[in-house]
Write a sequence for this structure.
């Protein structure tokens, strides 16, 4: 399942416990398994956790997203502009920032659905307003 930092932080308490992590692998671009090879512009971290950890995370496959869009004909998929060969790849719905659809034309007979991952917006902390300065003792005279 493709997730972003927002989804990861919502389940981080459960995944931080080692007993919930079944396996973790770091794949370099030249060592990525075939089903993710098209997404390997950078390293891929594959963390397998117990099903109960992801029980509350809603997700959809690329094929389900394509069916909801009701696009006629063939559809190809991409994540962040990188083509995905496997339409069964799951994406957490909270991680979807934007769905871009390029409809099929005579020149390109296949419609393209590009999933953009939501970016976390960092909120700057509110400044603490300066309060009155109180001086005690002889210095106050």
């Amino acid at each position: 399942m493709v997730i972003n930092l927002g989804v990861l932080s919502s389940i981080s308490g459960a995944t931080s416990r080692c007993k919930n992590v079944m396996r973790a692998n770091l794949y370099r671009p030249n060592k990525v398994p075939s089903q993710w090879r098209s997404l390997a512009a950078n390293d891929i971290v594959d963390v397998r956790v117990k099903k109960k950890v992801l029980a509350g995370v809603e997700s959809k496959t690329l094929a389900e997203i394509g069916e909801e869009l009701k696009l006629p004909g063939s559809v190809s998929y991409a994540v962040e502009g990188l083509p995905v060969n496997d339409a069964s790849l799951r994406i957490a719905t909270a991680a979807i920032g934007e769905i871009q659809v390029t409809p099929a034309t005579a020149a390109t007979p296949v419609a393209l659905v590009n999933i953009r991952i939501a970016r976390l917006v960092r909120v700057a902390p509110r400044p603490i307003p300066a309060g009155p300065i109180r001086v005690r003792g002889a210095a106050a005279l």
